[in-house]
Amino acid sequence: MLTIENGSLKGVTRPRLNNITLSIDSGKLVGLIGPNGAGKSSLLKAIAGIEPASGRFSWNQQLLSAMKDTERANTLSYMAQDDIPQWDMTMADIIDIGLLKRRISRSERQRRIDNVCATLNLSEFNGHSIQRLSRGELQRVLLARALVAEPELLLCDEPTNALDIYHQLNVLQLLKKQSEQGRLVIMAIHDIPQAAEYCDELILLDKGELVCHGQPFEVLTKANLAETFGVHADWICNKRGVAWQPRPL
Predict the structure, then answer these.
(1) Residues of 226-243 as b/e, b for ≥16 C-beta within 10 angstroms?
(2) Within 85-125, where are the H helices?
(3) How far apart are CA 133 and CA 91, in angstroms?
(4) Radius of gyration over alpha carbons of the chain, in Å?
(5) Strand order of the sheet with strand 2-9?
(6) Residue 47 has pLDDT above 90, yes or no
(7) What is the spatial distance between Cα 98 and Cα 68, in angstroms, rounded to a whole number?
């Protein structure tokens, strides 16, 4: 279980996070939603320990900030938004970075890299320089780097960004499967219908404040969407999926 108590992060004109308090059980895919500047990336960075946030961030009642490097690496992985490496490395070398703090054999390391590449349709790029990859291909490599550690807590900042619709769905299904295996997966996502369809829970943020946390139908109310996004939305739900028709207020 992830527990956040009074999580706050300073900003220039207002707090990027303001006294966020919530608890999330393992075994769930949780979507972070909200307008631009709502605090989605800031919350992920605060949980991962990348930003110096105040408050308590605990995993199974243990402070994440108190964990040793190896224990922390065994617990969580973080995929940043638009984390484009500026150096020339092979795809496998980039993915292997996700295992730097892992004490595993060379054969186990290679097995994990091969498995995650196959899962994300990356095997054909084995040995390729990342400079030769498209933005969408690189996005999948960065997700593979986070997944290869097989963490208990997986934090992803817009993992479907720059992906075509096929690979968007493939990634969402993969993250859903990760949660079904007992992991907690938290992702920032802009596509509201995809969030409604795939996520077990949603966290709605606005201006660094927690607006609502619950199941999609509890969070995506017309009142919440009007207040945070400034839109009126009509929902379409059937056996083939979820869609919406938003209109500016």
Answers:
(1) eebbebebebeeeeeebe
(2) 91-96, 106-119
(3) 9
(4) 18
(5) 17-24, 2-9, 54-59, 62-63
(6) yes
(7) 16
- Domains by residue range for the chain, with CATH: 2-83+151-248 (3.40.50.300)
**Measured between alpha carbons, how far is 195 from 33 in angstroms, rounded to an integer?**
8
**pLDDT tens-digit map of 94-149:** 999 999 878 788 899 999 999 999 999 999 998 888 888 999 999 999 999 999 99
Q: Which residues contact 51 (CB under 8 A, 6 or more apart)?
A: 9, 42, 45
CA-based nearest residue to 235, from 189, 196, 187 = 196
Spatial distance between the Cα atoms of 142 and 236, rounded to a whole number of angstroms:
33
Cα(41)–Cα(239) distance, integer angstroms: 32
Q: Supply the pTM of this predicted model.
A: 0.95
Characterize the bridge pairing of strands 241-248 and 231-238: antiparallel
Q: Which residue, 160, 234, 225, is CA-closest to 198? A: 160
Identity at 73, one-letter amino acid code: A
Three-state secondary-structure class, residue 230:
coil
Q: How far apart, in whole angstroms, are the C-alpha atoms of residue 246 and residue 2?
A: 32
